[in-house]
Amino acid sequence: MKPYIYLTRKLPEEAYQKLVGRFDVHMWEREDQAVPHDVLLSQAAKADALLTVVSDPVTQEVFEAGKRLKVVANMAVGYDNIHVDAATEKGVYVCNTPDVLTETTADLTFALLLAAARRVVEAAEFIKDGKWQSWSPFLLAGHDVHHKTIGIAGMGGIGEAVARRAKGFGMEILYHNRSRKPDAEEALGAQYCSFDELVERSDFLVAMTPLTPDTKHLFNADVFKKMKSSAIFINASRGAVADEAALAEALKNREIAGAGLDVFAEEPISADHPLLALENVTALPHIGSATMETRIKMIEICVDNIERVLTGQKPKTLVNTILLEP
Ligand code: GLV
Ligand code: GLV
Question: Which residue numbers delimit the D-isomer specific 2-hydroxyacid dehydrogenase catalytic domain (predicted)?
């Protein structure tokens, strides 16, 4: 029997061509809708490999059902949607797609920062809604980005790529991270500081941390109170690193000036969510890595990892590397 592969989203056949014929490939038939969890469970029970996306909760149950499961290739750098401990316990490889999306995600993060500061989305809606009466001195006046202070919380690859863009804008660059980044300090003049100092000094506070038990609600009511009232909060990592109720309050009460959000605790966020009703929120539907070039590369990495595992080779971008230790 050929190994059974289940893709949780409809993908164009050329994207997984090299699996066709050698493996028994099945997929959820919708591109725009998540696979229901019961379908994922019944497919996992048959599958040797799963190709998953960020919105699929790959729970302990999935690994319990997946008696033949050998690899889960997640089309994302983040893997907070996967119960990695359960995978490791069952000896299932979990793979992600690091590196290929770093510059792309940094571009979007900076686009979001610029859009939030300069009210780009609001201005675009304004003109298309036919509201433009005349040039006026403070029409849609926002905040400067150049020469302001950016504070990056989480200086991984994407954080550094954001810092490089900030340098081009003449910004003062602060960062906080578990470990110091001497290269970024030297090349970009980035200054390491404590989390509190980062929060207090930043004009743009950018969340770039993965979601873990330690970072859940890291950006809470206290943080928003400590921020400058002119500051803008940017999040392109995971929604749950911020306490959204506290964020909505802080924005409503003008404790902070604005927010640019590409991610939400629940995705898709419901259209009547309080955050979406605020005029000082620029919201995007989790498109950080969404370019044709990068999404194709991410799929290729997933496909490659699946092929490697199913042909007895080591996966290339393994999350639970402990499985390869002797
Ligand atoms: C997307 O959010 C990712 O983690 O790649
Ligand atoms: C504005 O468009 C200006 O010319 O200052």
Answer: 16-320
Judge whether 273 counts as a catalytic residue: no
Q: Residue 316: count other Cβ atoms within 10 Å of its Cβ.
A: 10
Burial class (CB in 10 A: 0-12, 13-18, 19+), 15: middle
Ligand nearest to the CA of 294: 1
Topology given in CATH for the domain delimited by 4-100+292-324: Rossmann fold (3.40.50)
Compute the mean pLDDT over every residue in the chain, rounded to the nearest whole number: 97
pLDDT in tens, 75-121: 999 999 999 999 999 999 999 999 999 999 999 999 999 999 999 99
Q: 160: closest CA among 241, 196, 216, 106? A: 106
- pLDDT value for 242: 98
Instruction: Find the mean pLDDT for residues 264-291.
Output: 97
Q: Is the pLDDT of residue 324 over 90?
A: yes
Q: What share of the chain is helix, strand, coil (3-state, %, to 5)?
A: 40, 15, 45
Average pLDDT over residues 262-289: 97
Contact between 128 and 120 (Cβ < 8 Å): no
Whether residue 54 has its Cβ less than 6 Å from ligand 1: yes
Please tell me if the domain spanning 4-100+292-324 has the same topology as the one spanning 102-283: yes
**From the candidates 176, 238, 255, 307, which is the catalytic residue?**
238
Does the active-site annotation cover 255? no
CA of 188 to the centre of ligand 2 (A): 32
Class for domain 102-283, per CATH? alpha beta
Q: Where are the domains of the chain?
A: 4-100+292-324, 102-283
Q: Which atom of ligand 1 is nearest to the CA of 238?
A: 2
